[in-house]
Amino acid sequence: MNIVAQDLIGNGNFEDGNFGWNFTSGGSSVVGEEEVIIRNKYCKIYQTEAIYQPVPLSSGKTYTLSFNTRSSLGGTLSVMKQNTNDTYWSIKIYPAPGTEWQSETHPFRVETNWEGPLVIHFRAAPGSPDRFLEIDNVSLLEGTNPRSIAAAPPATTTTTTITTTVTITTT
Ligand SMILES: [Ca+2]
Known about the structure:
This protein is mainly β. Helices cover 0% and strands 43% of the residues. Strand 2 and strand 3 form a beta hairpin.
């Protein structure tokens, strides 16, 4: 039987503006870009600023986070305890200069020592003010291999998919 996982992120494509997301200061915002046919909304995060959204995660379960990024600045994606600096899981988002969106997919496991309320937290790296961490189509699904690839950006843009293979050798 094929069970479709429920996406735990709300308004991950930012088409409802700021709804569902919290901003650490006033500078970052959801903005619109003009496409040939489609107007796409995404989130533009200024250097050192962050956005986050509370997520209901269960201890011992594995989830897969996916998103599109067009960062010229880079940053971090973390799972944190809300309103603290307690970071339980984190990955780097590397700069990807240019106008094309990239697709990223990252599984993680919720360990028993993770204390809620947990949030998904995007922070832009420090950098010059004309650079941004741009994100869109944030999705959080239970499991390691769900239909977890971030939704395709509008047809007028091209997506580059980066696949990383990790080989573990035991001696
Ligand atoms: Ca969008």
